[in-house]
Amino acid sequence: MPKAERVQSAAASPADGTSGVDRLLAEMSLREKVGQLNQRLYGWQAVERAPRGGFRLTGLARAELDRWGGLGALYGLFRADAWSGRSWADGIRPEERAEVAAYVQDEVALAGRHGIGVLLTEEAPHGHQALGGTLLPTNLSVACGWDPVLLREAAAAVAAELAASGVHLALVSCLDLLRDPRWGRAEECFGEDPLLAAELTAAVVSGMQGGGRSIGKDGVAVVVKHLAAQGEAVGGRNGQSAVIGFRDLHELHLPAVRAAVDAGALGFMAAYNDIDGVPCCANRDLLTGYLRGVCGFDGIVMSDGLAVDRLAAATGDKTTAAVAALGAGVDLSLWDESFSLLEAAATDPRVVQLIDTACRRILVLKQRMGLLSTSGQAAAGKTTGTGGDTLSTARERLAPAARTTDRLSARLARRSLVLLHNRQGLLPLSPEMLTRVVLMGPNARDATAMLGDYVPPLPDGAATGVDLALRKALPNTEVVCPSGIPSALDLHGADAVILLLGGTSHRPYGEQFAANGAIAGAATVATAGEGVDLADVSLPGGQDNLVAAVRERARCPVIAVVVAGRPHVLTTVRDNTDAILWAGYPGPHGGAAITEALLGLSEPTGRLPFTAPSHAGAVPVRYNDRHPAGDVYRDAPEPVLFPFGFGLRYRPVRFEKCTAEVDRSTVRVSVEAVSTTDGDDTEAIVPLFGHLTGGSVLPRQRELLAFRRVTVPGGGRTTVAWELPAERCFAEGATGRARTDLYVADLQHTIRPYGARPSAAPAATPLSDT
């Protein structure tokens, strides 16, 4: 166990800046430097319970320490899931995390000559993937709320859990765009729009790290992933080629990268895919030219798991693969053998210089995280990163952090719901009018379907399905859950039928996994998630047949709730139901949030962050494509079922008085949001779209120029104002004849560049009365 009870702050920085790093680097041997660039171990295989209590290093971990005289980073020490095999029966429990982290740091620091600690890396795409880790809704669901402010608060709470556990690096999906719903990892995306993704990415980084990389005792460093264009992979096939030009790469996939750098991100993860044949892990133009040269990034680049080893298919062997990745700008590998072979390539002075550069970046980060000894001796027990607290205090910090995360997760769940269809204002339902409700569908009783991929096993009662939540909310109503296709008798006397449709990313224990954790072979349960790409995005398992059968036999309203990690074709659902609520993967509070929305205890105010297709063969289709998709396919003349940004609500909010002023560098736009009902305040998402013409490139159909989530007083109005850079609002290469049509809901306003001849168009034109 730890040899010292006091632990050092994760934000500690030696007073002499980086000069201490340079002195340390000069004292290190080549092998010690190469060791700092390696992250070969699966963390759950690094420690085990000792026979007489406590923990000890495994032989595998001890051999790695002896080989390098330390460790660069250790991945997944606390990871628990079906891939790792760790569960509540044998995994590291929440109250044990700080103790185990301190023990590992002691052993690593004492194993080398320089007392260097190890970076502890954990998965946290929507909460810490560890026993007791508190989960948020997945990114695609969070994006439905269009609320960077709330996401930043939730990200800070997750970071506080990680920091109290001794973690330094959080791996967080932020950069991928949902460009093809066939991709199994669609749930990890903040939707299909670059601006929305960039705003939410910045919120995650600033929330987890603190403003200006302050970190503090409750923050961790963020490694944002995946760089870049992984969502563009041909056919939605995970990790395969992104067939994309320079302009679309920069306009669509790199804005979130720039936003992460500007927010202070300390790490990036290079993706599996190639762009125009060049693997991202070997793409110097991307990792060094753009990321460091253009954006000014000065942190570390980590490869995705085993991605460097994959380069051997191009370079011929793993040693040259390592040199290719190192030369491109990768500093830290993940599980690869390749980086462990770099000593053999160090006969080349250029390789030696590259090793020094990467090692220095790792050491600078470790210095920031308090992992370098200031005395030159092993700082035993001082490097857990638990904020200068005692181990007992660190454990005490974990519980309130988890409670905060849980509370914010519930708020995010409520904001993630999108009302897609509501015939004759059926929703919300009146509880006093419900004597019998039939609840059915594949997700009717399944709380795990609400959670998404990259989740740990939850303790009993930590997540509630819709069946239990509905029974709790309707104690005087009979709620029945028949299975399969219902008979007329099953539906007899029902006041409403609620269908819980969609899919799941749940990975059961006993599933077969690839070496990087993706599902290998046929998934036994999951219909989405990493390794579960689909050729057909229709609802799985014959659910359309279920919907049609229920519609035929039911003599009451039929409501569909879609729990899913990707856009599915919902055409049959729309045509055969009276209401549709999109829930995505709303997290452990999803059952309660869905129930509240159905019964009017809360209002679904979300908007889709993706385009919902009407036909499986029409994908991919995106709102910001350059050509319209309508009337192209003879068998699917209208391929869009619900457009990007779509969302209904219970209490109408209309928009009035859209105005804009243009000067040389700025465009100022304002619009008024008006609540048409008295009573409580209501929240509204206000997106500003543009169609930019008169430039040197073919315009996109629409582009999101800005958005805001606002509170509108009951029966009152709120002015929403933006001050935007002019270059965002006009086409590339815009001439004096250029124009941009601005759209806010049913309002249109035309602007022209500063100094151009005035437009003859009216200031604001209503498009409809909705």
From TrEMBL:
Signal peptide positions (record): none
GO molecular function: hydrolase activity; oxidoreductase activity
Residues in Glycoside hydrolase family 3 N-terminal domain copies: 95-363
Claim: Oxidoreductase is one of the keywords in the record: yes
Listed Pfam families: Glyco_hydro_3, Glyco_hydro_3_C
Keyword Oxidoreductase attributed: yes
Alphabetical list of InterPro entries matching this protein: Cellulose_Degrad_GH3 (IPR051915), Glyco_hydro_3_C (IPR002772), Glyco_hydro_3_N (IPR001764)
UniProtKB keywords: Hydrolase, Oxidoreductase
Glycoside hydrolase family 3 C-terminal domain: residues covered: 417-650
Source taxon at top rank: Bacteria
Protein name as it appears in the record: Glycoside hydrolase family 3 C-terminal domain-containing protein
